[in-house]
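Standup notes, protein team

Yesterday: finished cleaning the Alkaliphilus peptidifermentans DSM 18978 set.
Today: Protein-arginine kinase structure.
Blockers: none.

Input for Protein-arginine kinase:
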Amino acid sequence: MAKWLNEAGPEADIVISSRIRVARNLDGFPFPHMLNEEVGKDIMNKVYSAVIEGNETLINNFELVEMKHVDKVNRLNYVEKHIISPAMARNTTTGSLLINEDESIAILINEEDHIRIQCLLPGFQLENSWNLADKIDDLIEEKIKYAFDENLGYLTSCPTNLGTGIRASIMMHLPALNITGHINSILHASSQIGIAVRGIYGEGSEFLGNIFQVSNQVTLGITEEEILKNLTNVGMQIIQKERFIRASLLKEKKIDIEDKVYRSFGILKNARRINLTEAMKLISDVKLGVVLGLIEEASLEKLNQLMAMIQLGFLQKHYKAELTEEDRDIKRAEIIRMNI
């Protein structure tokens, strides 16, 4: 299981994980969507050599994975663990990644850009994630010339990533804000200051289980330090708001909250069939119960893991079979009963 699922980091009652993604391209090569298999392989070899050669620690800790050698179920599993994007999962011609043992560092090769360095840590650890990504970035840049413009900064396939090429994001569990409708004001205010709030799998995805991804939108004309500072400040404001509303709900609507939490816990422990949307909602309720001190039999780490284990890719990997919609709902309920 990935590090961000196994461990509880800072502010774990609300922040599930922190991610830094750095987009880079090699000078003199067309962007990935224009690559043939031969050139894509050449880029993969260059990046692999830049990261691994002369670094005994990295040689032992990183694995090279080519998408063409990964089956559909395991590619989906990588997506569900937030290691690769759905687009990367579909690129079985030139796509590959370097990934470390605890899956906290992944270097995506020939995704939307030639290189995407991703560092994913548990809890609110933007600065630590950035420090890891920055070291890998410097290591590669020592041996590979990046596509760079004096005025525009690092050149990227998508214009919205020009400049620093950095996307910082935090995955947050915000049940109180969502239950009370206050999340709408968060969404509006964030968009006004260059912060995006999206679903669990990024742009266009659903807000399953009251999980929201909060990230910077602006990369051009702003420094790395400013990106981190802005998102950290926004994150802390959201954390404070969520905690305040949680406390208010417990004080003013204690019976309602207790009923919601215990009812959800009971369904999860006994259901024989459950779909993903309902399961995520009920696990979210139980997570809220754990944080409010209503439930002691479960932990946040275990519940975060469970949210990952009930996704389609995880289910099919665990049961070693492609599952029909009915089968997956039955197996999902089984996994939940075994782990809650």
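Follow-up from PR in the comments: The longest helix spans residues 224-252.
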